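Following up on my earlier thread - several people asked me to post the actual chain instead of describing it. Fair enough. Here it is, all 315 residues.
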Amino acid sequence: MLNNKIQNIEKLSAKEVILRHLKLNRGREVPISEFRDEYGLKSSTISNAMKELKLKRVINVEKRHLRRGRYTVITLVGDSIVEQYFRADEKQPPSKPKVNKTKVLNADDLEGLTKLLLDNSYSNFYLDKTVNSFGLTDTQLILRLMTPLMRKVGTDWSTGTLTISEEHIISYRIETYLRYLIAQQTKEKERGTIVLVPAEGEEHVLPLIFLEFLFNPFYQIINLGYKVPTEDFLTFLKKIINTTPVWIFFSLVSPLYSSTLIKQVKFIHENLGDHVQIAIGGQGTFSLTPEELNDVDLIVSSDEDLENLYQNLMG
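Reply from S.P.:
Thanks for posting it. Predicted structure:
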């Protein structure tokens, strides 16, 4: 039992418990197991709180190695930074969001969700609280909420209702939120590997984040991001196809890169043959002809296609 232990933690968040305990034990490296053993915090709760505090540069996290194994310790960056952190929390407590105070959003209120994502007071807390109130499953979150929302954002951008900067802000915040959810997902037995990559030249990667969120609990997900040369991509694929079934999902949002994508697909198909299955999704698929799609196993061009894809891979 520790002597330097904070009391009455019932109303404190995990971040507050960690910071107050570190401050009380100033000058000592505190192992993360201490928060679990002394305060009953779950490992996942501690991990999520540490990520945010480390991102805000309030704490240092280091590994220590002993003969019997290794463990992680936390120290404060500095008392002044901690005090600033608490003052910021007091000015804007999570329990009293500044946005949408008078209006309760629903999953069909795409205009309200757009305003929430552009609000100066936005954080993942606001969106998470709103989304949780909808009671959506993972597939509904993507099919009923995120896909229609991004379709509206694209339309608003094309008509000048939204600026490019606003479109980028919304996309970034949705991507950040989905990655926040992905980090909390529980992995089940993997059924294979899904490789996610946009068409060469394409920089819209949000559709791939949607897929990563849907399939991450059940598949090994390898999201390569954009600007990956086809030759490098092929070399990478050759290293993994002998150990696991592989699906490759290409994202094509802009038709400007359709010819490049078809060359990628043909190149991969010629070199790997039946070792991989190839799917293409995104608004840009409407620009492709049936002849160009001969080497493609699956096209995802609608919400129904995406739902069928999910059912097939999960069946």
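The chain has three domains: 14-91, 110-182, 193-314. That should answer part of your original question.
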